[in-house]
Each structure stands twice: as C-alpha cells, then as structure tokens.
C-alpha cells in the first residue's frame, strides 16, 4: 500500500459524537457510508447521471477513528464497464499537526449507472 492517498479527494467531513459507539470510536458503518457517498460522487460525475451501489468488496479497517478527526475519502477509478464503474476508495484521517494523516480503511466499491426508473444504463465512453 502507498504511503500517500491514491486517487482524488471526493469527500471530506468531521467525525462527530453522534457517529461513535459505546467505546468512543467511530462506527465502521458510518465510515462505510462516507465511502459510499464519495464513490457515488465520483461515479455520477463520470457517468453523468445517477448511480447505485451494487457491490462492496475487500474492506479492511486499519486504525480507529476518534471524534474530531477529519475524514478524507479518496477515489480512484479501477474499471469502467458497459454499465458499471469499479472504484477504489481510501479513507485517511487527520486530527491536528501532532501526527501525520493515516490510512483508516480502503475498499473496492462497484456502482451501476441507472436511469430515472432505476434501470441500468450504458455509460458513454
Ligand atoms: C443496479 C441494478 C439496477 C443493476 O441491475 P441488474 O440487471 O441486476 O444488473 P446486472 O446484473 O446486469 O449488472 C450490471 C453491471 O453490474 C456488474 N455487477 C453485477 N453484480 C456485481 C457484483 N456483485 N460485483 C461487481 N459488479 C457487479 C455487472 O458485471 C454489470 O457490469 P457491466 O454492465 O459494466 O458489464 C439492480 O441490481 C439494483 O437496483 N440493485 C439495487 C441497488 C441499490 O439499491 N443499491 C443501494 C444499496 S441498498
């Protein structure tokens, strides 16, 4: 794995108290939903329309996220098919200048371009 983020910055937010579990760490599910949003932003920009998540693969959580951490989601297109887009999504967190940004998690998400009726549509290349 690279020591710097791969891809483009598609979403940035801050972990809030409501996003934590009983032990004070941020829920993994909250992080996955930020990744989903970041991937959708990139997929919808590329396909010029709506997209739906069809698969999430190869997730791994490396370090815990704390309240107040700045979460940055980086997205990189791996493959564009007829109707689908496979995206590598990395999450990095930073808090203040006391430590360097760290990779929190990474995963491969697949989005399908859909039309207004929710049916798949061809991605123009
Ligand atoms: C997205 C949806 C319209 C796709 O319709 P579909 O007829 O099932 O689509 P297909 O099986 O033909 O697959 C469409 C594309 O996704 C790819 N795909 C399907 N299942 C996949 C999987 N498990 N992993 C990766 N890619 C997958 C196919 O290879 C195809 O890609 P291509 O056209 O680029 O070759 C439909 O599955 C759907 O509505 N799913 C729910 C989406 C949703 O609500 N997501 C939010 C989370 S609840």
TrEMBL record:
Domain HotDog ACOT-type: 5-117
GO CC aspect terms: cytosol
Gene Ontology biological-process entries: acyl-CoA metabolic process; fatty acid catabolic process
InterPro entries documented for this protein: Cytosol_ACT, HOTDOG_ACOT, HotDog_dom_sf, Thioestr_dom
Record carries keyword Transcription: no
A molecular-function term among this protein's GO annotations: long-chain fatty acyl-CoA hydrolase activity
Domain of life per record: Bacteria
Keyword Hydrolase: yes
Coiled coil segments of this chain: none
Record's keyword terms, sorted: Hydrolase
Matches recorded under Pfam families: 4HBT
Family, per entry: Belongs to the acyl coenzyme A hydrolase family.
Protein name: Acyl-CoA thioesterase YciA
Organism: Acinetobacter apis
């Amino acid at each position: 794995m690279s020591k710097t983020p791969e891809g483009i910055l598609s979403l940035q937010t801050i972990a809030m108290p409501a996003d934590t579990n009983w032990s004070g760490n941020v829920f993994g599910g909250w992080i996955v939903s930020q990744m989903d949003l970041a991937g959708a932003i990139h997929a919808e920009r590329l396909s010029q329309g709506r997209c739906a998540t069809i698969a999430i693969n190869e997730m791994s959580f490396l370090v815990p996220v704390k309240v107040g951490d700045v979460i940055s989601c980086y997205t990189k297109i791996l493959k564009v098919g007829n109707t689908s887009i496979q995206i590598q999504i990395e999450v990095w967190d930073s808090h203040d200048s006391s430590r360097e940004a760290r990779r929190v998690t990474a995963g491969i998400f697949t989005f399908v371009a859909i039309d207004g009726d929710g049916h798949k549509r061809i991605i123009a290349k």
